[in-house]
Structure prediction request, 171 residues.
Amino acid sequence: MSSSQQSNEFIVISQHEHCIVKQNKENNQHGLFANTSFKVGSTIVAFNASKIVDTPNYLTVQVSEHKHIHLFPEYLQYVNHCCEPNVLFNTTTMQLECISDIEAGEELRFFYPATEWRIAQQFVCNCGKPSCVGLIQGAADTSAEVLNKYKLTDFIKSMAAQYKHSYYYFK
Prediction:
């Protein structure tokens, strides 16, 4: 996509050190985009909790069985779901980790079940990727076969090992 097309389809909402929050003009959805390239294993930004709650909502990331955090910096709430993610909210290191190479201008996206055992609202994914899993639910309701294809947080790996009676290895 050329930069002239991009400026016609998105409105810049806010700019940050390594990322830009943009709003899609067609559907008003916000997304977080890289303004520099990142290599696999890079830390994009450190994060912490602005608020801790005991139940999930669409703005939280799960860090333990009954602990969900609202992200700080707040702009991280605009990292959307994708079945072919390029980032992971690593809740052990509290870093947004690059899990596939990212080019400047690319949207940052994560796989929701990689951080959520149960989610507040299931939804039908419209990422359009060849590996799209369709109905997005928490890891508890996602098959071990599907989960095994993704990098998961340590918490989700431990829950899956405990509750998913399967021979699959969780990365």
In short: Helices lie at 3-9, 144-147, 154-163. The radius of gyration is 16 Å. DSSP finds three helices and 13 strands in the chain.
